[in-house]
Each structure stands twice: as structure tokens, then as C-alpha cells.
Specification:
The complex is a heterodimer. Chain A is mainly beta. The mean pLDDT of chain A is 95. Classes of the chains: A mainly beta, B mainly beta.
Chain lengths: 118, 113
Amino acid sequence: AQTVTQSQPEMSVQEAETVTLSCTYDTSESDYYLFWYKQPPSRQMILVIRQEAYKQQNATENRFSVNFQKAAKSFSLKISDSQLGDAAMYFCAYRTSFTTSGTYKYIFGTGTRLKVLA
Amino acid sequence: EAQVTQNPRYLITVTGKKLTVTCSQNMNHEYMSWYRQDPGLGLRQIYYSMNVEVTDKGDVPEGYKVSRKEKRNFPLILESPSPNQTSLYFCASSTGTGADTQYFGPGTRLTVL
């Protein structure tokens, strides 16, 4: 079974600085997808960035980028130029490859709460 | 507007009283899923469904039932709720293809006394 580990329950960053949130996972699959979700105090789940395992190039979305190390099974999120609005809970998620019955499942990490200091 | 709706948003109930949390999406998505979120445990998948009449157990299905009679609806049923099912519940949907984006509902805060 796949597992996702976020070892940092809480992180702090100064406004305008850069912070990296870590995520490691365990799997025997070669084809899968990885995601970072943001959950602000409103509780809404917002997709930040996604990475296909077959792509070597790291995904980037504006100030958000990932460091995807497939062999090490690591998927960290870097937030550059941190803003007050980045304060939230961040979840790393793994989506399995398609099963023989044509479906898949998701496994989420336990989350990292990010505080942004003014 | 593309969205996933859940009702109710908040519910306080008592042990053993059957309840249903509705979930509906207007994006013609194939894949729908229910999660529960608990402090320190993140989100855990309860059930998921790739198609009408096809449902699969996630990691924490005990005490829950689902049905997918129509593509747009995926209700979560607690036939005999217990206090350990007090949680924040999310419904989500996606196309079911490739690196599809999951669209989440606003969440349902359930308290079982």
C-alpha cells in the first residue's frame, strides 16, 4: 500500500522569503501523480500544483514549484516570495495509477501548517 | 458555475440516528469521492466511484455507505452514526482521466453526540 509522509507539522516563513515544505511517499508503482493542495482557514481545498511521475521536469506555477525526486520518492513544495495569503494548511497527495478495474485512489499526507510572519 | 455542492454544511446529531450527506456536481465528472479530515490525520478517502453503480472502498469505509445511481450525485450515508465519526467531510469530483484536477465541495462539519 502507498503511504505519504509530511514530517513538518508546522512551518513559519517571513513575508517575501522562501520556504520549502517536504513530502515523501512510498510506492511500488512507476506511474502515478502527485499533488499539493492548500487549505486556508475557509476550509476550501485548492489545488496548488501537480506532477506526473513520468515527467522529469519539475512543475512550476508562478511562485510555487516542486522538487520531484522520483528515485528518492520525494516531492517538496517551494514557495517563493511568500505572501500573507499563503498562510494555510498544505497537503501532499498521491494518486495511484489505474487499476485493472479502471479506477484509482488518493492518499493524502497529514499536512503542514504554514504561518507567514509580517 | 462549475461546482461541487454538499448539504448540509453543518450537522449535529445523536448516536444511532441515520443521516445522509448529499453531494452533487455539475461538471459531468466520472470520478467522485468522499473524504474525512481529522486533526493530525489529514484527509482519508472513505469511498470513491468511477462510474454510475460502481463504488470502491477507500481506506476508512467502516460505518459508511454510498450510492451512485446518477452520475452527478454521490450521497454519503451513515446508518448508525457514532461519536468517532465526528469529523469534517469533503466530497470531490474529477474527470477521471490523466492528471485530472479534483474539485472539492465546501465541506460538511458533522458532530455526533
